Each structure stands twice: as structure tokens, then as C-alpha cells.
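CHAIN AND CONFORMATION:
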Amino acid sequence: MAESEKQPKIGVFICHCGSNIAGVIDIPKLLEYTKTLPHVVVATEYRFMCSDPGQDLIREKIREAGLNRVVVAACSPTLHETTFRRVLESMGVNVYYFDMANIREHCSWVHSGEEAAALDKAKDLVRMAVARASELQPLEQRESPVNPSVLVVGAGISGIQAALDVADAGYKVYLVEKEPSIGGHMAKLDKTFPTLDCSSCILTPKMSLVGQHPNIELLTCSEVQEVQGYVGNFTVKVERRPRYVIEDKCTSCDDCVEVCPVNVPDEFNAGLSWRKAIYIPFAQAVPNAYVIDTEHCLGMTPIACGKCKEKCEAEAIDYEMETEILELEVGAIIVATGFQLFDGRRVLEYGYGLYPDVMTNLEMERMLSAAGATEGKIVRPSTMEKPKRIAYVQCVGSRSERHNPYCSRVCCMAALKQARQIREKYPDIEVTIFYIDLRAFGKGYEEFYESSARDYGVGFVRGRVSEIRHSFESDRLVVRAEDTLLAQPIEMEADMVVLSCGLEVFSDAEKVTRAIGIQRSADGFLLEAHPKLRPVDTNTDGIFIAGAAQGPKDIPDSVAQAKGAAASALAMLAAGKVMLQPYAAIVDEDLCAGCGCCEASCPYSAVNVVDNSAQVTEEACKGCGTCAAACPNNAISPQHFTIEQILAQLEALFQEAK
């Protein structure tokens, strides 16, 4: 350490943040107090410290007073720590000689109307920051090379778009999908709102591009089992289940289907039709090769049926295929694992699963599709006759204290779209939508709602449905609800009821997040680093999220987020290297007992016990301090949050109370 840096010379800069801080905290009094703190040689204030004049003020004071440490009392470090570090760097001061006191979010915003308490707390925060700054040590960032390839997990529309964007930029992409075909939920849709474009017409060309792209390696029937490593250099283990059909040999001739004796409900058509034990998920599937459903197949080892293999002239069927474990080296990971539909059976009073004429919005979607189970004809499942009245029930599983408190966003518009399609095909079918609030939030959505109500005669009843039961007298369903606009209970008979089931996080989210090393929010969806400023980043550098895996959203928002995740990954790959923060924990081998507490507690798998001593993978370590808190011997601590720095803050906190 240079002689000039041994004695701390600290400058404190207090920001008004307009009236965000100055409107609650008495800045002149805080400034006068700050001047009395140890090692503070400069203390000043400015209206917007993050502005160019504010940054110039810091530079000027560094130059005039020879400051070797800087504290800015302003907003969250998440917003402007990098901004002020660049100021220090431009003046030749080590950027890790900087600290921030958050007197906006932690003080003025939570003590509005409590000026005296806000001032006292601001003094505490500034005093603690100054104490820590006096113990800061110079650190240097390190570089790490980036593997020029990307893993995309999930091949719905978000994963497809992200994979294509990265591949089109010239980088290798591994696209992992657990199902036999890519396409996700969008492949099951008939039309998309508000333009009523054919869903397949939009999606199929992108699916074909994925299958043919020279930079994309498509891994279907595959799941991520483990992720090791760090930003720029991840090692991923992928389990690839056998299809029992050789993709390159399969000609999709259908000969095997003709001889298969097994009929199974077709999950692609929401169980409304049947498929064989050997099947192609849907006509436009990519890869367009058959797959054997081993759960329903009559047997392969030893051969109990074997008819499909006997019939296949291309010799594409191989019963001896085995599960593979692939090890991939990638620089970045994009998680686009999508959603699952809320199970309507969980709302017992609606009778889904009990009454055949109560169906979900996805089942209606497949019924409306010309390529669906009924070739686009609307029929009652119980009688196969055309219905006279259809009722939609909104917010099934959403906006509910019993189930999911959040709005699923797409359900209102999906119901409007389907109602409009039904009225276009069958003007004599009455359609009524029971809703709590209709939410038409996107571009062109409000106009679509008004047009559906005005031009197509869709009826609306405002009120949550309490019960759906079957009337044996009329052989129809009875929908009981309260019309909140009329302030009275109502009953309506309908031939069919469609439940607008909401969106939930995909079923194996816990398994996937544990394998990849990312977090989930309280609602179960994948957690972003910051909901506004970093919506596609995770708290693990180099891992990004996109689409409905992060929360309920429609197709345009999913595609936009996928492109954002791809751009973030590409920015890192294009640089060829990443800068690693020098926060990695250090181990005092003389104190380390090799107990493994640090290894067990590390959320980033950055600590391993080798030969009875903890070792830290610096590239993976985030300096979070979890290991230091777990260590019984104080043998490990992060470099930028040392025990000495934390103790200095604690002593400063209680100093005023003495």
C-alpha cells in the first residue's frame, strides 16, 4: 500500500436526490455532523450527486484535498455504485476505496414525516460508512475468458427466440428441451390475440429454423442435471433420455402407427383425442421423428410386442437405446422453462373432472383448432352435440388467497379471443364471460375487448362464480354467481363451462433451480436480479431468464424478454472476457479445521474442502459472506467485507449510544 493510502483521507458527499432525501432529512445538520467524524477531511452536498456536475465535484475535491477514500450518502448502491467507482478510477484512486450510505431507501423513504428520526438514522448510516471506509483495502479486478457458446434451457417460444438470436450472431447454442418436440405451449394455440394470427403460422417457421440452424444443437427428451463452474465457464451435465427411434433414419411414414395396438390420451390435444404408444407429438413437430412412450408401450425388453420394429422398413427403431449423460462447456445459460396451467381440479366447487362439459381454456383451444381433436367443431363432450350457451369463468386459480394471489395476465384476453372465435363460427351460440375485472393491458387489447363486446355480442357478468353443478332435469350445467353490478345473486344454465385457468411455474421448478443454481421468488417463479433494472439477469452472473419462467406473460412480452436475455449473453460473449469482482473469500489455513460448514452453506458451490482445508474457487465466489457466518473458527471471510470492516461498522453504530 502506498504511503499516501495508509492514513485515510475520507471525503463524504451528501446527495439531496431532489426532494427524495432533502425533503425528509435535514441536509445542513447532517453535513455539519459529518464534518466531525474521524478521518473526514472533506464533507459537502449537492442536489444530484450522480449527475455530471455532481461527479465533477467529487473529482475536484479528490484533486484538491488528496482524498484516498470516498463515501457518497445517497441512494442504493445497486443504482449508482458503478457510477461513482468510475469517478474514482478516472482520478487514479482504487475503486474499492469507495462506500455508499443508503440514506434514501433505508432512511428518507421509510421515515417520511419523521424528520428527527430520519436525521438520527442518517447520522448512523453515514458514521458506519465512514468507519468501514477507513478499513477498506485496495483490490484489483481479475479477468476470466468466456467460452463462446450458450445453453438455452426450454424450447418454447422464448427459448426458440433466444437460441435463434444467439445462433444468428455466430455462436454455438445447445437448446435443451425435456419434451420430444420444441414449440412449448404456443404450439397448442389456434390463434393469438389481438390480431388473431394463426399461432402455427408464426411459430412453425421459427421451429424449422431451429432444426436446420448450423449453430444450434437441439437436445430433445433432455434435462439439465447439474451446473458447475462460473460466469463464462460453466460445465453442464445434461441427461438425454432415449427416443428408441433414430431421428436421422426416421422418415415419418406412419407405418409403425398403423400396427401399434395401444391407444393413449393425447396430451397435445389436452386428452380430447387418442394417440399410439409410438407417436409424433404434432404434425409440425421438430424434430419430426417418432418417439416411443415407454410408460404405455407393451414392452421392448424382452420384446413383448415389437410390431413397430418389424414394420419399420427404414430400420429406425432401436429398443436398445440408453440414457446418455452429456457434459457441455458453455459461457452463458438462458433459462426459458415456461409455465404450467393451473389444475382446475383444485377448485372443487367448479366440478372440473366431475362434469365432462366443464373444460379448461386449453382444452377449448384444442377444440377450436382445425388440427385439433374435433377439427375445429365446438361440441359438448358429454353428448358430442353443438352447445347453445357457453359460460367462461375467469381467474380460476388466480387472484385467490386459496391458490395464487397474482394475476395471470393472459386469461382475460384468451377468453375474449375464444369467445370471439366461437361467435364468428357459430353466431347462434351464446357466450357469457363471468369476470372479476377484465384486464386488457397490452397494445391493441382494449380495442379488441370493445370490439368483442360490441360487434360479436359477447355477454359479460361481473362477479366471481361460487359454484357449478349439473342439473339432471335439463341435463345442463348451472352456474351460480353474484352479479356485483346488480348486487344480486344469479343462476345461469349453460351447456358448457370453460375455466380460464391461470399460469403457474412449471412443475419441476425446484429441481431445475437447484441444478442450475438460481433462486425463486415468493410466487414460485424464477427470481430476477432486479425487477426493473435487471429483469433478465439472475443473482448468478452469466445465467439469464426469459419468458413465463420469470412470471406470467403473453407471447410479445415473452419474445421481448428472450431477445433481452440473448442480447445480455451476446454482450458477454462478444467481449471474450468477463471482469470478476475481487470479493472472493480467503481462507486462513492455520485456523481452518476442514469441518465443511462453509462448503455446505455456500449458495454458489464456490467452496470445497480438500485435504482437510477449505479451498475457494475465486471465479465462482460472490463474496456474500455466508461461509464466514457459518465458520466456527473465523477462518474464512470475503475480501471486501472483512471482519475488521464489519466490526468497525458495528462499533460506529453503538458509538453514539455510549
